[in-house]
Amino acid sequence: MEQFLLILFYFFIAVVTIQVIYYLFIFGKFSFAKPEENKVKHIPISVLVCAKNEEENLKKLIPLLIDQNYPSFEIVIIDDASSDDTRFLVEDFQKIYSNIKLVKVDNNETFWGNKKFALTLGIKAATKEYLLLTDADCFPNSENWIAEMSSHFTLHKTIVLGYGAYEKEPGFLNKLIRFETLLTATQYFSWAKLGKPYMGVGRNLAYKKDEFFKNNGFINHMKIRSGDDDLFINEAARGENTTIAWNTDGFTYSAPKTSFGEWFMQKRRHASTAKHYKAFDRSQLALFYLSQFLFFVTPITLLAFRYQWIIVLSLIAFRYLTAWISLGFSAGKLEEKDVMYWYPVLEIILIFTQLNVFFRNIFSKPVTWK
């Protein structure tokens, strides 16, 4: 038993070391980054919104896009075979605003229900070389959203990863959703700053149209219903062509799920695409989440037998301190400070939710798009 506890003790030290490396040296690339100032470029932008039965959301979103403080942009609304009055609503807006374009997508037997097919048609119809994407149920955080996101484009930086936040609402579920969003953003922002971008979110994402066509669009994963954002970025993004935008003017917000079941299904859809990432990206994500899980289960036996319990408790405290500091700085940048008060509880619930998602996705496929 003594030999087993010794091995377990050293294993726990290794787990804590991995966690500290992630939080301080990897996530720290974003968490401790200094603010960046970019001049407004005023390059022509096409704002793309893919909509399926989003009439009510578009009533709110289109006026916010129209009011953007930007000199040259068009709004491309892609009506993906909606059964409501989405198409007629956009046509009414077109009568008033000349920079609104409607792309009508009818049901296609080959690509039925595939958002990527609809988005491809919208990208082809866009007249500007730079594309800014969001969802119909999102809204920009300021009238300078386009200006902020487009300011990060340079001659070589042709992909911009933005932050798609969720609205603050009362309740524990809201804090859990926003904590998960904070952790995810910290991860993909940090790896992008390290020169290894692996994903972005379609709620707030920009890239040059040329990047889309150089990558042959979504062709390599067209049969996978989800992943028009993260799978595309996983293929097209590289250290030299990708940058991040985290000024609050450039945020988008959307309404979070209001029930655990709905959020759980959303998590399943998002997780189903990760297995298609590049090998390195899958490995680094797996290592982080596995070490995160093992950090909680490994010391149980050690503490039960009071084996080196002072050192074990010290290691637990040290890991929590480094994680709290790292995520705390990130939360400050992304205006999510309030969730950090609940951090230990939120982390534990999220870990076991992700474990549930992993096993559920093995035995059944989640439903995607609408």
TrEMBL record:
Glycosyltransferase 2-like domain segment(s): 46-179
Top-level lineage group: Bacteria
InterPro entries: Glyco_trans_2-like (IPR001173), Nucleotide-diphossugar_trans (IPR029044)
Descriptive protein name: Glycosyltransferase
The entry's keywords: Glycosyltransferase, Membrane, Transferase, Transmembrane, Transmembrane helix
UniProt source species: Flavobacterium amnicola
Transmembrane intervals: 6-25, 285-303, 309-329, 341-363
Pfam families: Glycos_transf_2
Family to which the UniProt record says this protein belongs: Belongs to the glycosyltransferase 2 family.
GO MF annotation list: glycosyltransferase activity
PANTHER family linked: POLY-BETA-1,6-N-ACETYL-D-GLUCOSAMINE SYNTHASE
